[in-house]
Amino acid sequence: MAPSAEPAAELSHLPKADGSATFSYGGYSVVAAVNGPVEAQRRDENAFEALVDVIVRPAAGVGGTRERQLESLLQAALRQLIPVRDYPRCVIQITLQVAETPENAYVNTKLVQASLNLPIIPALLHAAILAILTAAIPLKAIAAATVIAIPDDNTDVIVDPTAVEADRARSLHVLSFTSQDELLLSESEGSFTIDEWTKILELGQRICCQHQQPGLDTAMAGGSHESRSIKEFIRSVIEAKTADDLYWK
Amino acid sequence: MAPTAGLTRATFAKLSPHPYLLANLEPSSDDVPPARSNGRAPNEVRPPTVNSSSLSHAHGSAVVRMGDTTVICGVRGETILTSNIPSFRASNNETELREYDLLVPNIELATGCAPQFLPGGPPTTLAQTLSTRIYSLLHSSKVINPDNLRIWHTGAEGMTANEDRMEDDAPDAIEGEKVVAAYWVLYIDIFFISFDGNPFDAAWAATMAALRDTKLPRAWYDADREMVISSRKESIPITITNIPIACTAVVFTGKETDRPSVDGKFWMLVDPDRLEESLCDESVTIVVDCKDGDTRILSISKHGGTVLTPTLLTSKQFLSWAGKRWEEFNLAIVQP
Fold it and tell me: Which intervals hold domain Exoribonuclease phosphorolytic (chain B) (predicted)?
């Protein structure tokens, strides 16, 4: 898939899971399955709130330390979106299977990699949110995430960089904002200045919260028109799905 | 503390930790200064102490202590011949550290360093997450110059590449030409002796202090024996010019729920201890390098909540706190 392709989603395609979704964008494709809220095992149960259990499986091989890191990030983020206090002694299990990742033909791919994998976070988050919505688990807000790279040669920042661009970037940032315009998650690596950090935060907020300021699209840095508002996308696919489900009436 | 309450401090803390920390931060009487339950002000850190070269068998080591969090880090070098690296390309001098896995950090949260770590079982999620973050930061911050890990070999006079060679994958040492014959691989083992919150800051500071202390033996490639020989007497220190420092803070909203408090009140507790970490959802870690006066950010990781706004994360107060912490740690690491 070309990295600039439109986001695509398929909903409720796994018959056994309570909720499921496949989200693909920018060369990434993630299958998410949600089960819950179901009764938690005795040793996991929390008398006051639901346990959110996130499992990330890589496209090849078994999960390693980097998957644990992604799981802990997503768990912390999704816990803020799900009203966990409404489901005491329950567990909501979210399984994310990575189906496709964009390849960087310039480097040798290693099966087991220990370093952080920031560009995959938006795909995982969006797939998880779509699957939670199809499982009819209420959410306090939805979240949209984006990846921004600052290239090494000090040209304009790149929104949704390709695998090669992400690899060569001086710094890489993942930002996620909720639908209430709050900063939910922010992960950055590489080397950058305070000014750049301020600009990245502003740009990230504009991209993730696009619908409120439609006029600003043209003012954004190069390539950003590719990044269609994910929030609008999630809303439209869920609307279409709901309309479909109610068709028999 | 209310004098009428029939509970001791310890009982109160154990029964209801949230109201306990809140009562400390918001004392009911005006003559008690607000403080965290550990007695520190919200923006008060635990002063770090660093003791390097404490392990005799490692090439470099350091113990870092911040309050009751104590970490020991040992660095040990091993050599690997380039002929034994499957993906070796002589022209690659940019991504060699990452591609050949020349830095191998590992974190162990020892049994007994805190009550939640039990013997047996696989490494906890925390240990795995920490080791991924340390690994990533070691590479992305570029603190280690790959040249320190290269072992060079100059082809002997009067010998050509295809002459006198039993195997053709031995380093091609053409007359007088310098080639990389082998690499040092650094095994960085981080061990928590005592764990009282803020593991990443302590582990990263210990890694930096140990790397700064690392002296690798002088090594050379012996073409006749086709192996790397290292000297017992001479050693060369690794050059670490920049010492980036990680600074962590957690956000306490005063409520047990995951919902932010109604009046929007919150406390940013820097350098949290174990109790505070267990009561707070949101945390932020910033890694800064303020060498020569200009601040560079090497990593920011904020997750678990929505209280910290972009304005707060770019505020002077937040960044100057990180700068101060950098100075404090650098002083502790450089001086001992």
Answer: 44-217, 243-313
